Amino acid sequence: MSEPIRRSLLLVGFVVMGFAIGIAGAFIQAHRSIFSTSDFVVIVPWGTALLLVVIVMVTRLATLATGTRWAGWLFFTGWLAATVLLAADSPSGDLAISSGARQVVYLFGGIVLGATAATLPVDFSVRKGTNRLPRPSVPLE
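-> structure tokens emitted (141 positions)
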């Protein structure tokens, strides 16, 4: 398979993957664990935390697998499309993502972290022999 076809299939695959994770995430983000003692109650929103980590990891994986930020942005766009679709009212009036604190953290946290992960440079390594980051490819003037 030629390189342009392989890369195009990867890019389409990342959009579909983003859409699938967005649909699954709409339901997983609501999960939480409640730990209680006689004095206090601790609620751990593990679904939201798990999905925010997944969004960042898959976005970075997409950019590193293809060598371009487009893949990260396409994954993020697929996730965002599914999330916005499920956060809106359905014709029957149902919501998959309601307006609670966990859901707001999932929406805004996913947007901020996903956009940040997609914007980071592809080659984010330290140059050999120095402790500095790589030089920009375009000279700054």
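The chain has a mean pLDDT of 85.
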